[in-house]
Hints:
alpha/beta, 7-stranded parallel β-sheet, two-stranded parallel ribbon, 9 strands, about 15% strand
Amino acid sequence: MSILLTGGSGKVAAALARQLKNANIPVLVTSRKGQDGAPAGFQAAKLDWFDHSTFEPIFQNNKISAINIVGPLVPDPAEHVNPFIDIAVKHGVKRFTMIGGTTMQKAPHWLGKVWMYLDELKVEYSVLRPSWFNENLIESPHLPTIKNEGKIYSGCGDGKAPWVTTEDIAAVAFSALTKPEPPQEVYNVLGPEYITFDEIAATISKAIGRPVQHVNLSGEDNAKRIKSQPIPEFLQNIQIWLEIETAKGNFHDESMERGIEKATGRPATKFGDWVEQNKSSWQ
């Protein structure tokens, strides 16, 4: 029996695939191109969220015990994910994990509709709600501005967030997918400290030995920055809202349960340690 990972080329799924493989647990990743789009060294199955005819063959050709869901980047992913879950359950899959975001709720909008459906089906499932990914700092739009300008742009002001590594997110998913007992319903997957963009810039600057400055943009200028990024409009709007709310301090909640510690029994990776491990990205 294999564990199936949707979103196989994404940051969290790739980290989770490595962790499962290192633990000698059979893993099957998905790709719209099937095996041709698979990471090297991994078996793959073809999955196209927008072509529901690709769903059934995955389970006809493979024995799947559990699934990690990374839904399509559309306003209503339940339109595609819920029928996929139906087919998986029909073929005996009893456990699911789903990657969302810190603000995701079990409610009839976006991935919350999938969460509600998993709950209705009474299957074993766990929803992971990670904070902002550290790895976003080593890809566009932040990577080129840090490398070429010595600047990192945001509209977050002095607002703080508990940035987290994708390896830690994957470790929580690993635990939820593989532990003998049913996983808890929700894991808030947070880094160990709440930090500002000023602190992010200072930490990177110290690691690479040259100045990096946080440029705090006005709401209008930050919206223009985000709207210029090549991502779907609804995600642009979510990012704008997240940065506005972060600037207001609305996501600074030290009382939230720390899911990494709860799931794995070890502390989350400190931001400074992660920067040291990845400083060559900005040099």
